[in-house]
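Sample pair:
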Amino acid sequence: MSQSPPIVLTFAAADPSGGAGLQADILTLSSMGCHALSVVTAVTVQDTVGVEDVLPLDAEWVADQARCVLEDMPVTVFKIGLLGSVEIIAAIAEVVSDYPEVPLVLDPVLSSGRGDELATDEMVAALRELLIPQTTLITPNSLEARRLAIEDGDDSDDVPLEECARRILTLGCEYVLITGTHENTAQVVNVLYSEQGVVRSDSWERLAGAYHGSGCTLASAIAATVANGLPISEAVRDAQEYTWQTLSSGYRPGMGQHIPDRLFWAREENVEDEKQAD
């Protein structure tokens, strides 16, 4: 029998549009050579336009899903996305605390691409207190970074992103990757920070349009590259390259945002095969 590919366990909400959440995670992880275990944290009512409603699962059900597969299969990396409630955050924090040797990639999903609120202030506080201290790499966009880092008396818009990264690192995580999609810059600049400062800064062509599930794709791609044995800096670089390719090959199946094509490479190979056949 063939050897199992690296196994990544993702905690996320189900997205019936197939653009974000668990569906995005599974597609990305599979595309990058991993076997995806998927723990449902919430059920959503959403499409490519936005999120209409979120129904969090019972926290014990979330924990039981995870513990069941963890007792059966060796997990190489944890990836965490939308969580749904303070109770779910606490339950997942307790589960992953039993596996301190397993790297954890946290995508702090605080709102949708349209701006729909997906995390209360109490949930943000729970993330800060319970999950971020156990995190290897957190991947906030600039808006999420400012919300996670805000302190009493701050005007969040005035806090430099480097200071946001410093504050998030003091919560206990090892690395912070702040993505620049929401910044007013000619190119999208993504910066990886550690306690030593800037680890790397990468600039990418700013593509037209909006994308549903780009953050899920990037975080899952990082989890996959870490699971495949790359150190964090290289994993972040390769994951960004993969994600940019999915966006540049993205398509618009509905009336809202584009969806990243996580299988772009397979379609490119098919086109190449057809050309050779001709």
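The chain has one domain: 7-266.
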